[in-house]
Amino acid sequence: MTPTMQHKISLEDAARDALVTPTYAARGLVGAAPKYHIAQQGMLPQVAYQIIHDELRLDGYSLLNLATFVTTWMEPEASKLMAETFDKNMIDKDEYPQTAEIEKRCVNIISRLWNSPDHEHAVGTSTIGSSEAAMLGGMALKWRWREQRKAAGQPTDKPNLVMGANVQVCWHKFVKYWDIEPREVTCEGDRFTLSPDEAVKLIDENTIGVVGVMGSTFDGRYEPIKALNDRLDQFQNDTGLDVPIHVDAASGGFVAPFLQPDIEWDFRLPRVVSINASGHKYGLVYPGVGWIIWRDRPHLPEDLVFHVTYLGGDMTDFSINFSRPGSQVVAQYYNLIRLGFEGYRKIQQTCQNVAMYTAEKIAALGPFELITNGSDIPVFCWKIKDAVAQTANWTLYDLADKLRERGWLVPAYPMPPNRSDLVVQRIVVKEDFSHDLADQLLDDMQRALDYFESQPGHKPKTDGSHFHH
Ligand SMILES: *Cc1c(COP(=O)(O)O)cnc(C)c1O
Q1: Domains along the sequence of the chain with CATH
Q2: Could you tell which of 71, 126, 131 is best to mutate to test the pocket of ligand 1, judged by most ligand atoms within 8 Å of the CB?
Q3: Which of 365, 423, 440, 468 is packed most tightly, with the most Cβ within 10 A?
Q4: What is the pLDDT of residues 53-105, one digit of tens each?
């Protein structure tokens, strides 16, 4: 564990009994505010507000945060609605039946976007994000596998999950928390995503499912879900094993339906039993809201579902959290009705245009080679050309640092195991990253390159603080 995870107070801090003592506090504050223990007396709301407001200015500026997938801007009307609904607890479906109804509408709308075969009876829920949604999807896979094994009188003590080495950390958590053996398809050469042929080599009778990713966090690529589906059909013919797919569409779930409607990755494919997405990524809502939809009722084991009374009716609940704000779900619904299909399509198309434009311009700077160009989700990454890297006095880590001086957060990090020799830099284009800002960034990149050239003694940095994985 890193010290930050333990919220550790250093000895130095303790020694000077760390105090927050802003000078202007003299106007309204009688005492100092201790940092690490609760003060005996409180302070005026305006003073508390000002202290925290000012302190938070030290955070990165979210507009320039090209590392995050998470929404950094919403319309004022959405913010207003959210402020009006902070007090509603999502779990209190009986007290807030209309919030519950709005969640249900979102589940139905999203299940239609993903071509659910029975969207009249859509089965799904909102969550705090894709990580919780992935847990729920993974648990359903494990429960179903176990029921089938038990029914067949087979042992159930060694479940495994097949996935690409490029999966997001939530899947590493899932297998650890639920005691499942991870079986990872490693990267190979220029392949940084799951290959269906390699995936089936890892499958046996203990495989609870295969995870496919629509929008790999490493490079923004879609995994070939249709090819995986078809390969698993052939595999079932050969072996008799019927293996389901869960699609982690954290970012692609709100991109592909609008930009690439012809790509078959969702419930159109018979093996896709559940799909998750983050409402707070390309669903365009502030964090945290996620969604999970199951293909149909049988794919969500009844044993996992809790029943709560809802206005005399029966409302199902399958979640890890209990209390959770209703505001994010309300904001999701706001976006869905405010933007409509065409609104989402235009925004995602604009993001993609900006991503592909920026990618092309970065390639034109000279020293870089694109790994992806933003044509799947509006996310792309690049490396330094091999020939350039051999003699350069800088690395992508240096470039990330240099850009950070101007406020840009553009992370550099190694690719997944087996290709971790390859360091890339990535940009996630969101709605608030305009063409104009892209041009500013390109100027700053050129300036950084000029700087390195002017510093022959500069020592290349070989490791970075990988903000994001
Ligand atoms: C972001 C992401 C996650 C985690 O989603 P959260 O909503 O942040 O919990 C999982 N999988 C993929 C592919 C992601 O991009």
Answers
A1: 10-58 (no CATH), 77-336 (3.40.640.10), 355-454 (3.90.1150.160)
A2: 131
A3: 423
A4: 989 988 878 889 999 999 999 999 999 999 999 999 888 888 888 999 999 99
Percent of the chain with pLDDT over 90: 78
pLDDT for 145-177, tens place per residue? Answer: 999 999 999 999 999 999 999 999 999 999 999
pLDDT of residue 89: 87
Distance between Cα 437 and ligand 1 center (Å): 25
* Per-residue 3-state assignment (H helix, E strand, C coil) for 249-303: CCCHHHCHHHHCCCCCCCCCCCCEEEEEEECCCCCCCCCCCEEEEECCHHHCCHH
Residue to probe by mutation, ligand 1, list 168, 194, 292, most atoms within 8 Å of CB: 168
Rg over alpha carbons for the chain, rounded to the nearest Å, is 24
Task: State the pLDDT at residue 398.
Answer: 97
Q: Say if ligand 1 is within 6 A of residue 71 CB.
A: no
Query: Does ligand 1 lie within 6 Å of residue 69's CB atom?
Result: yes
State which ligand 1 atom lies nearest to the alpha carbon of 251. 15
In angstroms, the CA 149 to CA 385 distance is 50
Ligand 1 center to residue 374 CA distance, Å? 18
| Distance (Å, whole) CA 104 – CA 129 | 17
**The amino acid at 49:** Y
